[in-house]
């Protein structure tokens, strides 16, 4: 019993370390994402101010993409072309579409990798760094959600792969490969079966790492953009309040001029911060907008095909249900998190105007009020 308790404590401690983060180092949010992309060959190690990348890493990158993405997709396309009925077509299509989405994601990341790197590093620029404990909470919440969604997403994908891989060896199984595909040799038994099994395990793991990592890279950026909007709202609500002032004070003309100047400067800083946030969001939007649109469109199609397979499963066929339900839950979760992250950013942006009303705008001079109104109208 004591050893069991010690084991549980170690697991709890390890889990706590996985969620340990520093709000002063928001870039560390994406360490897992970057390491996952490096493993799959999608995060080149190009030093700054150098045009040449690491040749061996580039070779490794193209090998992974060609063998475990494009060739993997080709074997599934051949299966789809040879499908004899709607049931076979649906079985081949519901995973093929999900994996095919990684192609535009891969292309977008390849074209905009330098922009993505610079945008992530911008999170530790002076305008984006939290300045007090209240702002730390906004950034910490963004980091937590980014990490929390990334790990279960990859975990759920690997659960699907484990279920599919084990299902082939269960008595009565009629499948010969993890993902419906066609190969130019006999893969239904013997050495060919195990060769295809190993190849598809690696191929599905490759997709299981890439697909949710691309997703969570985008949602992580959205969460951090939401944190910055909340920080901006917090700054706006504090304009006009002087914490060092005594309530029983006598305002002199010089002091009022100084205070008006201070309010105007603070408002200018908030506007500059707002412009930085907009630029930050636009950079990622231009890089992944097309890929996200394709992904969401395909995801809804995948959900429809998967539900069709669920309806086609015969009563009592637990094996078939077990291979479909984890995948359905994974896809729905990935669509939900994109919608959730976008909704959080939209909600934070809508609350931004309300933050202005919490400022001490009655203390503003004409110049500051005009600037505030202009900002509110944007």
TrEMBL record:
One of its GO terms (molecular function) is odorant binding. It is found in: Cell membrane. Keywords: Cell membrane, Membrane, Olfaction, Receptor, Sensory transduction, Transducer, Transmembrane, Transmembrane helix. It holds the Pfam family 7tm_6. GO terms for cellular component: plasma membrane. The chain crosses the membrane at residues 59-81, 153-170, 191-211, 287-310. It is a multi-pass membrane protein. InterPro entries: 7tm6_olfct_rcpt. One of its GO terms (biological process) is signal transduction. Its main location: membrane. This is CSON010007 protein.
């Amino acid at each position: 019993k004591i050893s069991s308790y010690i084991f549980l404590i170690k697991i709890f401690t390890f889990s706590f370390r996985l969620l340990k983060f520093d709000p002063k180092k928001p870039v560390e949010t994406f360490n897992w994402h970057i390491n996952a992309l490096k493993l799959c060959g999608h995060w080149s190690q190009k030093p700054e101010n150098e045009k040449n990348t690491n040749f061996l890493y580039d070779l490794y990158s193209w090998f992974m993409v060609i063998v475990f993405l494009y060739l993997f997709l080709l074997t599934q396309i051949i299966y789809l072309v040879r499908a004899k009925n709607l049931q076979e077509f649906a079985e081949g299509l519901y995973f093929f579409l999900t994996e095919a989405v990684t192609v535009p994601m891969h292309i977008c990341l390849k074209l905009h990798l330098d922009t993505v790197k610079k945008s992530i590093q911008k999170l530790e620029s002076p305008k984006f760094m939290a300045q007090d404990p209240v702002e730390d909470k906004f950034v910490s919440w963004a980091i937590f959600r980014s990490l929390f969604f990334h790990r279960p997403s990859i975990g759920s994908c690997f659960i699907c792969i484990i279920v599919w891989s084990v299902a082939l060896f269960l008595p009565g199984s009629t499948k010969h490969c993890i993902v419906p595909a066609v190969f130019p040799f006999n893969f239904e038994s013997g050495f060919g079966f195990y060769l295809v099994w190993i190849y598809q395990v690696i191929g599905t793991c490759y997709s299981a790492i890439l697909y949710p990592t691309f997703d969570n890279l985008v949602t992580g950026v959205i969460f951090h953009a939401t944190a910055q909007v909340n920080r901006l709202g917090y700054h706006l609500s504090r304009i006009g309040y002087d914490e060092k002032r005594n309530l029983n004070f006598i305002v002199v003309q010089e002091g009022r001029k100084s205070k008006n100047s201070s309010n105007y400067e603070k408002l200018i800083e908030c506007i500059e911060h707002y412009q930085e946030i907009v630029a930050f969001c636009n950079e990622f939007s231009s890089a992944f907008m097309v890929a996200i649109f394709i992904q969401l469109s395909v995801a809804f199609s995948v959900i429809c095909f998967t539900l069709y397979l669920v309806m086609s499963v015969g009563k009592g066929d637990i094996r078939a249900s077990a291979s479909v339900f984890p995948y359905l839950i994974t896809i729905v979760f990935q669509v939900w998190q994109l919608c959730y992250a976008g909704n959080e950013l939209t909600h934070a942006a809508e609350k931004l105007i309300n933050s202005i009303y919490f400022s001490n705008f009655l203390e503003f001079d004409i110049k500051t009020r005009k600037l505030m109104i202009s900002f509110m109208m944007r």
